[in-house]
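Exercise 7. Given the encoded structure of a 124-residue chain, write a plausible sequence.
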C-alpha cells in the first residue's frame, strides 16, 4: 500500500488516500510516483495536487496528516504549529517550545500553558 496526501493551494494537507501499489508500478515493475499521482488526478480532478507520504516516515520527514503542511523547498511534511510561541527547528523540522518540558514521571506529566508561557504539572 502507498499513501498520498492531497494538498490545497497553500500546500496544506486536506486528505490522505491509500492506494494499492499496483498504481505506482511501471511495465518494468519499478515504482513511479507520478504514475500514481496521474491516477489520483483522474479520480479526483486534474487540478488536484498530490505528494506521496511514508507511513513509516522513510521519506518526506513524517507521515502526512490532515492539517500538516508540505514544504516544497525541503520536500517534507510538517505538523501544524501547536502554539504561537513555538518555533520550528530548522534541522529536525519539529516544533519546539520556548523552554523544554520538565521530565515526566509515573505520577505526573507536563502540559504547555500558552497563556503563561510555562509548563503546568498534570497529575495522573
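Solution.
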Amino acid at each position: 500500500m502507498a499513501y498520498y496526501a492531497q494538498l490545497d493551494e497553500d500546500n496544506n494537507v486536506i486528505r490522505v488516500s491509500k492506494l494499492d501499489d499496483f498504481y505506482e508500478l511501471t511495465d518494468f515493475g519499478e515504482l513511479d510516483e507520478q504514475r500514481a499521482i496521474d491516477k489520483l488526478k483522474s479520480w479526483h480532478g486534474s487540478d488536484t495536487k498530490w505528494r506521496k507520504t511514508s507511513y513509516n516516515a522513510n521519506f518526506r520527514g513524517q507521515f502526512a496528516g490532515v492539517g500538516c503542511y508540505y514544504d516544497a523547498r525541503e520536500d517534507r511534511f510538517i505538523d501544524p504549529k501547536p502554539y504561537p510561541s513555538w518555533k520550528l527547528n530548522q534541522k529536525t523540522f519539529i516544533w519546539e517550545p520556548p523552554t523544554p518540558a520538565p521530565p515526566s514521571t509515573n505520577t505526573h506529566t507536563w502540559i504547555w500553558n500558552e497563556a503563561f508561557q510555562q509548563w503546568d504539572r498534570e497529575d495522573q
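Remark. Strands lie at 2-7, 13-19, 49-53, 69-71, 76-78, 87-88, 95-96, 108-113, 118-123. Students should compare their own answers with the one above.
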